[in-house]
């Protein structure tokens, strides 16, 4: 006796009825063939039919990419603001002292060096990302050429400028503003940071704070409970951070007990002496 299912009774791909099904979609449950089975980055080994894989809630990392694609982030607005400030400051300085062929006037004009870079950065020109790193160095060299007695100050400004420029250069959200390719792993990290159960992170923060300020403990407990109820690794997209939620809850419960114990020790000490 054979246990093989007759070909006519086997599942068929919902899109290609002439092909046998290789499995079912993790979302809608319809049969798919080997060609139609689609994996989605950020969702592990789950397989979907092509229609479901294209849905924004399933392909959530792609949705995240599109959400920030070409949209100015906080850094872009900050660079734009600083550029505007530099223009206003230089204009005010020139209105006050006028433009003369003195070193002081040239020194004031140095403030205009980053303006084209800042404008290009705000407008999303890719070369401006790299120029932003070089600009502090150029300014320091030029400033040193005009005034040799401010080396320590220039070095300090260059260091600060470089730290900010490198920080901006590495920022994923800013790379998406410049429409640069970002690998799925990096998008996943961005999603984790912003949208993966943020309440759990709050719970753990409140929990640690509650160790020093016991009045925060109830907030940590409430956040911990809410975050713990949200955890669902099978959801699409998966909701995690169970450990952080638990940490907040436990610290929120332990903190009042700890403080109660310390108070009790202090009170018994007073009664004895
Ligand atoms: Zn489906
Ligand atoms: Zn198919």
Quickly describe the structure:
The protein is mainly alpha-helical and 273 residues long. It contains twelve helices and four strands.
Give structural notes:
- The structure is a single chain.
- The protein has helices spanning 50-53, 60-68, 74-97, 103-109, 114-122, 127-146, 151-170, 172-177, 184-195, 198-212, 217-230, 242-272; strands spanning 23-24, 31-32, 38-39, 47-48.
- The chain has three domains: 9-55, no CATH class; 74-177, no CATH class; 196-272.
- A hairpin with a 7-residue loop joins β3 and β4 (47-48).
- The chain has twelve helices and four strands, in the order ββββαααααααααααα.
- With 273 residues, it is an all-alpha fold.
- 63% of the residues lie in helices and 3% in strands.
- The protein is flat.
- The strands form two sheets. It has a two-stranded antiparallel sheet. A two-stranded antiparallel sheet has the order 3-4.
- Bound molecules: zinc ion (2 copies).
- One zinc ion is lined by residues 13, 15-16, 19, 32-33, 35-36.
């Amino acid at each position: 006796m054979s246990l093989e299912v007759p070909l006519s009774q086997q599942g068929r791909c919902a899109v290609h009825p002439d092909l046998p099904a290789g499995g079912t979609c993790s979302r809608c449950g319809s049969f798919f063939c080997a060609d139609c089975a689609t994996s989605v980055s950020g969702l592990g080994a789950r397989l979907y039919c092509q229609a479901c894989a294209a849905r924004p809630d399933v392909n959530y990392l792609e949705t995240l990419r599109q959400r920030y694609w070409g949209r100015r982030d906080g850094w872009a607005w900050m660079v734009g603001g600083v550029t505007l400030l530099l223009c206003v400051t230089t204009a005010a300085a020139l209105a006050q002292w006028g433009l003369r062929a003195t070193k002081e006037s040239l020194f004031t004009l140095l403030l205009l060096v980053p303006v084209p870079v800042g404008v290009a950065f705000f407008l999303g020109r890719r070369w401006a990302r790299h120029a932003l790193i070089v600009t502090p160095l150029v300014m320091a060299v030029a400033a040193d050429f005009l005034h040799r007695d401010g080396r320590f100050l220039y070095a300090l400004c260059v260091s600060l400028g470089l730290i900010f420029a490198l920080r901006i250069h590495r920022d994923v959200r800013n790379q998406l503003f410049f429409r640069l390719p970002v690998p799925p792993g990096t998008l996943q990290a961005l999603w984790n940071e912003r949208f993966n159960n943020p309440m759990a992170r709050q719970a753990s923060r409140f929990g640690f704070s509650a160790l020093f300020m016991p009045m925060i403990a109830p907030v940590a407990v409430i956040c911990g409970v809410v975050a713990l109820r949200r955890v669902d690794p099978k959801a699409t997209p998966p909701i995690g951070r169970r450990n952080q939620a638990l940490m907040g809850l436990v610290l929120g419960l332990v903190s009042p007990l700890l403080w109660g114990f310390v108070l009790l020790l202090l009170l018994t000490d007073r009664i004895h002496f």
